[in-house]
Design goal:
globular, 5-stranded parallel sheet, alpha/beta, 3-stranded antiparallel sheet
Length: about 475
């Protein structure tokens, strides 16, 4: 019990990185339900060796009773919904023009092993961390550690250049100054890595597949952690909050496939030996720990249900809400698992069903499938938005990881965007390696149909699974 009456549990940081789970993952597993994962450096004296030392201690403070019991009011829900849709999908009506071809022509196939990942890690560390990039930042901001941290987070290709405009430096300083003074290790928290997209036009693999796109982002996160360590000698940890189990039902993906995807990420991470910088927790577990073991319910679940009812009314509300609802629904259609449900349709038919929002443009022969996808998209939109807005309303990430730097793959105000390469997120496309040369900026992610712009491509498969690892121009130059 703390001096202010809160329930607090403390435990030393787990030792070493020789286990399957990282230190942070093991600390989270033993944390009480509904508690924060807060770290602090403490000073201790070892009488046997007559030495002072400063280990990291985990402090788990219960916050369930601090969650808001009242539902969000109408005005807050409206503004939160508009802000959420803008942050996820922008504004306007994106037009997806029908491509001349829907899938690339494969010229040749190759197999590669783990050495590809290891080589990419080695090259990335050498080019981005152990080079003049970080040393110049350290020299320029030698007397201002907070400014150096901010510069690393905004410096491409280590960070993201858009962060400079999206994140207020004074606000960032207010957040991290005390942590720097206390010699705390920093937390950077990133909800992401759900599962491989199951839209046939974006990917060619099942939902559990991890390709070079995902692994490249994991390596870039590791590199970011190392870079922050160069300017903040007490270190920084990247915490990925895998959200596949939370969203699998919403998008129609098998939960077993989402779980396999998450564990494959952990497995590849461990092979690369980067579990000292990158930890992978599960966002659905954060929410599950709020539930009463006896009833299986929580204040958070009540909020989600209430928000979903409100959001359902937005499709027939004023123009701003109605347009935002339609924008969200279009995004959901493109993200749904339709690989199986539209397997009986040709590529041209499936493209029309997924991209056309006006029923007057749908032929009678496609109407039943179009209506089914429209209905699924509406349900997904309401569930997806209500869950994310509830996370914001209850400040669940901020309460679970006090003082953490919030990261995102969607550049938005007051959140630090991760490094980005290509026109799609790693889980929403396939990996493409420019020129077949594996260097830091050569790996990007593109939707599968975009590769059909090339006359032909080569595919590299992982020798242990046979799954596509990345695509590239034909190696024979034809």
């Amino acid at each position: 019990m703390s001096s202010d009456g809160d329930l607090v549990f403390s435990a030393d940081e787990p030792f070493g990185h020789q286990e399957y789970f990282s230190k942070i993952e093991r600390a989270w597993q033993r944390a009480p339900r509904g508690c924060s994962l807060n770290r602090r450096r403490v000073d201790r004296y070892d009488a046997g060796s007559s030495l002072l030392y400063s280990p990291v201690e985990y402090e788990h403070r219960s916050f369930v009773s601090d969650l808001k019991s009242d539902p969000p009011d109408e005005l807050w829900a409206r503004e939160a919904f508009l802000s959420f849709v803008r942050g996820e999908f922008g504004t306007g009506r994106p037009v997806r023009e029908k491509p001349p071809r829907f899938s690339p022509t494969i010229r040749d196939e190759h197999t590669v092993g783990l050495e590809v990942f290891e080589r990419f890690l080695e090259v990335s560390e050498a080019e981005l961390v152990y080079s003049s990039v970080i040393s110049s930042i350290s020299q320029r901001y030698s007397d201002d550690m907070t400014a150096a941290l901010f510069e690393v987070l905004c410096h491409p290709p280590i960070g993201n250049a858009r962060n400079r405009a999206n994140v207020d430096f004074q606000r960032f300083g207010h957040q991290v100054n005390s942590q720097v003074e206390r010699r705390d290790r920093l937390f950077l928290v990133l909800p992401s890595f759900p599962f491989k997209d199951q839209n046939r036009f974006r990917t060619s693999s099942n939902a559990s597949t991890v390709d070079l796109g995902e692994l490249a982002l994991l390596v870039r996160l590791h590199v970011l952690g190392l870079a922050l360590y160069q300017v903040h000698p007490f270190g920084a940890d990247i915490v990925v909050l895998s959200d596949g189990l939370l969203y699998s039902d919403i998008f129609g993906v098998d939960r077993g496939q989402a779980l396999k995807y998450r564990e494959q990420l952990r497995g590849f991470r461990n092979v690369l030996n980067i579990q000292g910088t990158v930890s992978i927790l599960d966002l659905s577990d954060l929410i599950g720990r709020l539930r009463d073991p006896a009833t299986g319910d929580s204040t958070f679940d009540d909020t989600v249900r209430g928000l979903r009812l409100k959001i359902a009314t937005f499709k027939s509300a004023d123009p701003a809400l109605k347009d935002a609802y339609q924008t969200l629904k279009r995004g959901m259609k493109w993200n749904l698992n339709t690989r199986e449900s539209l397997r009986h349709r040709s590529d041209s038919e499936a493209w029309l069903i997924l991209t056309e929002g006006d029923r007057r443009s749908i032929p009678p022969t496609l109407m039943s499938d179009w209506e089914a996808i429209e209905h699924r998209a509406e349900e997904a939109a309401e569930k997806y938005a209500s869950t994310n807005i509830a996370l914001r309303y209850h400040q669940l990430l901020e309460r679970t990881f006090p003082g953490a730097i919030r990261a995102t793959v969607h550049p938005k105000p007051q959140q630090f965007a991760t490094p980005s390469r290509g026109s799609a997120y790693p889980w929403n496309g396939v990996a493409w390696v420019s020129g077949g040369q594996l260097y830091t900026n050569a790996v990007e992610t593109r939707p599968l149909y975009d590769l059909a712009r090339h006359e032909a491509v080569d595919v590299f498969r992982f020798d242990l699974t046979g799954e596509p690892l990345f695509f590239t121009e034909p190696l024979d130059g034809r």
